[in-house]
Write a structure and sequence with these properties.
Length: about 100
């Protein structure tokens, strides 16, 4: 693949470790224009944030803002548990990055 994507997360039991949920790889040998590469990366991040936003909206339908949620990694395995309020703050940070 010319461009690939993923996601990173803190490993809860051991803060010295990182779960790599998201990584972006761009093949340096591709001849695509930089603007096209930047657009594709932005699209992948936007698509991921929209997916996460839809999941948060589903969870808001449940009772209690402190409900513990689990998030999926790329392979479909549970990777961590987070409280919903901290997950929402991550979405806000991602939205600000996309606007920049």
């Amino acid at each position: 693949a010319e461009i690939s994507a993923g996601r990173f997360a803190l490993h809860r039991p051991d803060s010295q470790k990182t779960l790599i949920d998201y990584a972006i790889y761009v093949n340096p040998k591709i001849s695509s224009p930089q603007r096209l590469i930047d657009t594709r990366i932005a699209y992948m991040l936007h698509r991921d944030s929209m997916f996460a936003s839809k999941n948060v909206q589903k969870l808001r339908g449940n009772n209690g803002s402190r409900e513990v949620i689990k998030t999926w990694n790329v392979r479909g395995a549970w990777v961590r548990e987070k409280r919903r309020d901290s997950f929402e703050s991550e979405l806000v940070k991602m939205a600000h990055l996309l606007k920049a």
